[in-house]
Amino acid sequence: MTGLHGRWISFLGVRVASGLLAFGAADCVPAATVPPRLPLVARDTPPTRPFPYAGPLRGGSNFLWYTLGPGCDREPYGIVPNYHQPEVRAQVRAQLAAMAAAGMTRMSLGVHFTHGWSTGTVVDSGDPVAVALAARNAVNLLADVKAAGYHQVLFRLFPVGTINPPNPDFDPSQVNEYWNFIQAIRPALVDAQLPYLIDLGVEALPRDSDLPFIPDPWKYPRNANWSRAVRTLWQNYYAAFGNADTIGFSSLTDADADVMRSRVRHMRYVYDIGGGNPRYPATFAIDVYGNANANEAVKFTQYDQALRREDTSGALGWRDAPVIVAEAYYDDPVAAENLQAAMKGTGRKVPFLTQWPLDRGSGAPTGGNCDATNVLPPFTWSAYGHYGF
Length: 389
Hints:
The protein has 11 helices and 10 strands.
């Protein structure tokens, strides 16, 4: 697994960006015209901003579904799409309280969206009524998260289907709909009076073509549609809101060090706000799942090394940038030990970690959607807490 997003490549699958997808078919989609970006309003802010790092702070979980059905079915049970239902809100409040009592102080929340269809997890971003409901539900969810005593949230946007840039069926004409969805959801976070960061696209950071023997290889996307779409979204976001409240686009961590470096290097393209003028997030976020090819320590270290090799002077802000671990296996002592070792070995600052509800341990449910999500909330916080997260 290269980020666990190969787990969802069906019409109703909720996340459509696997390592194979990211490096295979999706990378080979021919270029198409994307809508023009919105006019930029130049901001006189530096490429990076100071980050008052203190950590690793205590983290928590990705909390997106309030229960699972048979075969670990998640589709009917998305929190944000269903939070207007009193019984759902009552159940989630109880789960939030239980997880706070277990020691969690931060959460990764989020919403899945696509164009033209919906499920109990996925919001139709082309339906103004559905989008408005999701935004109101996010307001109430964040109020309950704050009331439960949580200190911070990472709010993650999960594009699905043809609105998802890594998808080989991605439709570039839907970039503006994606941008409108961001604008509809963001006020809930701004008004919540709770520290937050926004992930503008889960595992949506693309890579360059890694062309040999050419200057500035970062200028050549592996998948032009994907790279142009996320750059357009970033230009729109930066023009409207700056870069202070976002991690940009989270990244999977590649087993191949050269692929990882090409993904990091391509950030020069992705975060260009126009005219070769990049403005980077001050904090990045990655998903780290160890596998037989590379464990968590290897993947984290390769990501750290790519940042340092591409920013040897520190001028870009990458060399010392804090990196949130947005996903890792659930309550996993092997992952926790590997990540702790990598942090010590690299000196990379990790503000916090949020586990994904997927147990890879002996006896964990498998098959069907259980290969994607197999743990019911409320979640525990044991292994990562023991290792200092």
